[in-house]
Amino acid sequence: MPPTPSRAEHAGVAGTRAAAGTLAVSSLAKSVPGGRLLFAGLDLTVAAGEVVAIVGESGVGKSTLLNILAGLDDSDAGSVAIEGTVLGGLDEAQRTKLRRESIGFVFQAFHILPYLTLRQNVALPLALVSPDAAKISARADAMLASVGLGDRGTGYARDLSGGEMQRVAIARALVHRPALILADEPTGNLDPATAATVLALFADAARKGGSAAVIVTHSRATAAIADRILTLTADGLRDQNGG
Ligand SMILES: Nc1ncnc2c1ncn2[C@@H]1O[C@H](COP(=O)(O)OP(=O)(O)OP(=O)(O)O)[C@@H](O)[C@H]1O
């Protein structure tokens, strides 16, 4: 039995997707090497099309949590499931496959490749999971258009401004219609006006595409676009409304 539902076939233009793109985290605990506890008893469920922001003091473990959700780091206890697939049950090759097919990343270090065109950069996640070059190009162009760069597909990434690069990163994170989008300060270093535009694009694309999105941020303005804002503490995640 394959470890994950395959999105490779339906990540193309037609793009039907499963109804439940849900992240389910249960009783997660993590200590840093050396023993200091970061958090314990952490529960989190994010529904398809829902955008959740995680805030918290510097050093509390937000990036560590994001890495655990991505299967890039291991928790000490608890479980993470993406569309019902529990990460702890996967070997490294299966985790890599799940990341490619089911997760989109918008991390601070964008890894946009300067000597590829915008279309090639955005197409990369799809090229890893689908052999259909024509569909890949069409989908990459549609994503570029959705972030306002539809006429720039054949231009090179090295010529972009910071804000344009962030928009390419968002288009690339969403191009394969991932079940889960993980974003770490997606608008870091942008001026407030550009940040607001980029965030609106991000949230709109996640909601319309039915992806569950988790954004880690220090910015109140960034957190404000989320459906829920959760504060990370040593006791886990606390709803800002007290829930
Ligand atoms: N490999 C490691 N060895 C020891 N300590 C580590 C290691 N990785 C992370 N830490 C510590 O774990 C804590 C949590 O780090 P993390 O980057 O997750 O916090 P954060 O909430 O994202 O912080 P910030 O908001 O400042 O980015 C920090 O105190 C960090 O120093």
UniProtKB/TrEMBL annotation:
| Pfam entry (one) | ABC_tran
Which PROSITE patterns does the annotation name? Answer: ABC_TRANSPORTER_1, ABC_TRANSPORTER_2
Q: Which GO terms describe its molecular function?
A: ATP binding; ATP hydrolysis activity; transmembrane transporter activity
* The keyword ATP-binding is assigned to this record: yes
Query: Gene3D superfamilies attached here?
Result: P-loop containing nucleotide triphosphate hydrolases
Record InterPro entries: AAA+_ATPase (IPR003593), ABC_transporter-like_ATP-bd (IPR003439), ABC_transporter-like_CS (IPR017871), ABC_transpr_LolD-like (IPR015854), MacB-like_ATP-bd (IPR017911), P-loop_NTPase (IPR027417)
Q: Does the keyword rRNA-binding apply?
A: no
Q: Name one GO cellular component term.
A: plasma membrane
The ABC transporter domain sits at: 23-243
What keywords is this UniProt entry annotated with?
A: ATP-binding, Nucleotide-binding, Transport
Family assignment?
Belongs to the ABC transporter superfamily.
- Protein name stated in the entry: ABC transporter ATP-binding protein
Organism (species): Aureimonas glaciei
Highest classification ranks of the organism:
Bacteria, Pseudomonadati, Pseudomonadota, Alphaproteobacteria, Hyphomicrobiales
